[in-house]
Amino acid sequence: MRRLAGLLFCLLAICAPAEAHEITFGQLDIHVGASSTVIEVKLPDLALIQEEPSSLPPGTTAEMLAAPLSSEISAAVSRLVTERLRLTANGIPVPLSVTDITASDADIDVTLSAAALSGALTVDANLFPTDPLHKVFANVYRSEELLGQYALDQQNPSFSFDGLPRPLLDVIGTFVLEGIRHIFIGPDHILFVIALILLGGPLWSQLKIVTSFTVAHSVTLVLATLDIVRLPSQLIESVIALSIIVVGLHDLWRLQQSAQVRRRPDIRVVFAFGFGLIHGFGFASVLAELALPQDALVWSLAAFNVGVEIGQVAIVLVAAPIILFITRYAPGMVARATLSAGAGVVVFMGSVWLWERLAG
Fold this sequence. Notes:
Layout: H1 2-20, E1 25-32, E2 36-44, H2 45-50, H3 71-84, E3 85-89, E4 92-93, E5 97-104, E6 107-115, E7 121-125, E8 135-142, E9 145-152, E10 158-161, H4 168-184, H5 187-197, H6 203-225, H7 233-255, H8 259-262, H9 268-288, H10 294-329, H11 332-358
Parallel strand pairs: 1-8
Antiparallel strand pairs: 1-2, 2-6, 3-4, 3-7, 5-6, 7-10, 8-9
């Protein structure tokens, strides 16, 4: 019991920070015209509230970021954008003027104007420099044609653009990396995959489980990203937490049964496909933040999905050998107790996340 308690404590300590500070996504659209340039910046309310030290007036709450914005908040947001967004054309700084600031949904939209741009363009958009989890997705357009697409963060806050269309391989590479990153910063997805393979089994059965999960979440990732099917975010996140609990309880139940019962048909493939449909909506919520244009959506979507699969395979390649070693070489009771402890951690963490998400 002491070991199990210690294991629960350690996992909670690892996962708790991921829940303490939420990941936020901003957006930057640069429209280069023949006579002027229009820049649209989307700042998430949550990123503004979470920032430490805050750029907002003291005492600002999330409710105060709804329309209409006060003059003090508008002025603070204007300063934030003009100080942290920098453009240079051919090495010369480009003056930016804020023309509009409005609140929409859970974001504040800022519109800026600049002179017409030509030659080499460099953009530095470290909008929340103290937040290592914040991402800014930037799009560059000329006459409504998408010329470039970039993902910026604290480590890579800038990009350079020479006016030529960005190579397709760069776009694919960007979103493959985003898919991998999303898997590894999402403890709920990691725990669900581990729960699916916790009982071990023949290689062919493991392949069926992983393939079912892949097919299911790929389907709903496409449907949600193309805005064909949409479900409430709180419902999706709550059901993802519930899926972890259900699979963990199933693992516990199978581990407590006799060998004869454990030889009955394995229904994990059903869990993998059914709950995989819901996890696909969760993956799509990341791409939904980008508001991708239609002409780049297919490649970005496919690349992101490939990245998710690479991350998922990496998790299986690490966890499966450990589980195989336990089941093959540990004494029967020790192996069952160890795997049961792991399933207990799965159920515990899923319950914590379900409670938090139902509470909003």
